[in-house]
Design brief:
Layout lengths: L1 E3 L5 E3 L6 E3 L8 H11 L5 E2 L4 E2 L2 E2 L12 H4 L4 E4 L5 E4 L7 E4 L1 E2 L21 H4 L5 E2 L6 H7 L4 E12 L5 E4 L4 H9 L2 E9 L5 E4 L5 E3 L6 E4 L5 E3 L6 E10 L3 H4 L2
Antiparallel strand pairs: 1-2, 3-17, 4-9, 5-6, 7-8, 9-12, 10-11, 12-19, 13-18, 14-17, 14-19, 15-16, 15-18
Length: 258
């Protein structure tokens, strides 16, 4: 498989798959995890607002990715940058993602909630910068979540990030990281694995490297996902629970899919 993306940079590797199911090897109990998460997020999870320009997400200026009607997208909580380069929030009818990190780096306090330092112009992802274990948050009761994550074949775990949505919500289109940085991360033996605990009847849509839309299969409970691709979630009908896990694998990434 051969891809080029955004510049003269070509990689021949199966890790160019943005989404790839991991079927049969690992399991978790969705109902038990949801109960534990419901206790965790009380007064803790932070809503993410995403940047818009000219009525569209800055990550999809041409409207290639469809997740909702134009009117609903423009009635979702978001922000824009004014002429003074100030962030101006707009509170809409629809909420968006609430996020909460279950692991962190003691030397980076912002890693408790964010994925990079707010004052970092390069937006270097914490787990790309620090190739070492993160620490589970001991003030949280993480019995089942921790047990479910630790079944995965990691030498060590880095960020474990909860992404929660409650209706009415739309997962606005965005990217979380850089393509080349992600590919380098994967080639060095690290992984990005998602737990689809409850899809909430929303669908995760994303653009491939050629700008073609695809959808994640809601029947798949565990999968690889490259979050450098533009992606968003269609309107949900009930609470949506997703867990993202990054870390250093103890086996080659290919073997997870076998």
């Amino acid at each position: 498989m051969n891809f080029q993306f955004g510049m003269n940079f070509t990689i021949n590797t199966f890790m160019n798959d943005i989404y790839k199911p991991i079927i049969g090897r690992f399991v978790f109990n969705s109902e038990i995890l949801k109960k534990e998460i419901d206790e965790l997020i009380k007064n803790r999870a932070e809503e993410r607002t995403l940047p818009f320009k000219n009525g569209r997400s800055i990550y999809d200026p041409n409207g290639l990715l469809s997740i909702a009607s134009e009117s609903d997208l423009n009635d979702t909580t978001r922000y824009y940058i004014n002429e003074n380069q100030e962030r101006v929030p707009i509170i809409g009818k629809f909420k968006t993602y609430h996020v909460f990190n279950l692991t962190y780096l003691p030397e980076e306090p912002e890693s408790l909630i964010d994925i990079y330092k707010k004052d970092d112009p390069k937006k270097t992802i914490f787990w790309h910068k620090y190739k070492k274990p993160f620490i589970w948050r001991t003030e949280l009761l993480l019995t089942e979540l921790k047990k479910s994550v630790e079944q995965l074949p990691f030498d060590y775990i880095q960020c474990v990030r909860l992404i929660f949505m409650s209706p009415p919500s739309i997962g606005q289109i965005h990217v979380d990281s850089h393509y080349i940085s992600n590919i380098k991360y994967f080639k060095e033996g690290f992984a990005s694995i998602s737990f689809n605990i409850d899809h909430g009847e929303g669908i995760l849509n994303y653009l491939d490297r050629k700008g073609v839309q695809h959808s994640v299969d809601n029947n798949v409970k565990i999968f690889h996902f490259d979050d450098s691709a533009p992606h968003g979630v269609t309107p949900i009908k009930k609470n949506r629970y997703q867990l993202r896990i990054w870390g250093k694998l103890s086996i080659p990434y290919e073997e997870i899919f076998a």
